[in-house]
Amino acid sequence: MLYLRLFYEFFKTGLFAVGGGMATIPFLYNMADATGWFTRNDVANMIAVGESTPGPIGVNMATYVGYVTGGNLGGLPFAILGATVATVGLVTPSIIVILIIASFLKSFRENRLVENAFYGLRPASTGLIAAAGLSVVMSNLFFMENLEQGFGLSLFNWKGWLLAVVLWLLTNKVKQTKGLHPILFILASAVVGIVWGM
Length: 198
Known about the structure:
This protein has 10 helices and no strands. The two termini are 35 Å apart. The chain is an all-alpha fold. The radius of gyration is 20 Å and the shape is globular.
């Protein structure tokens, strides 16, 4: 039953993953609340790991959630099956849509309604990606659980702010580090996170 639920939840997410993997993040937050398979903090960690590993972030996160959720049933075979089911669930809608579009490609390309629909999808996917980015910023730079206490110093994650400012300076203002490959900054941030216990 868990595997059917995994497939169903990620199939729903895959249906609306217009604009790429980052557009799935609001759906993952909703899934965290609805299923309890992972927390909102786990989503932020998945984003960090998913962005620093090869492959699309949505697929990486589906694979990770399926692996952990399936593994809770007991052992590696269940984890692998969970990862496979969640990943297949996420990509199935895209495969179906691509097959349909490929079969009608010529008429789709020249159809004004389809062109207008895609024009309307651009701001929607931009909004989903912006919402995902904002939620990542909020969860990493602020302690939202302290919001009830008001807007004080306890609200700010000073380690997160410090790391963000240092990375911004190194990637935008310091000539010697400006042209370095992004993977170096990702690895350095991972080391800082381990050392600081972030």
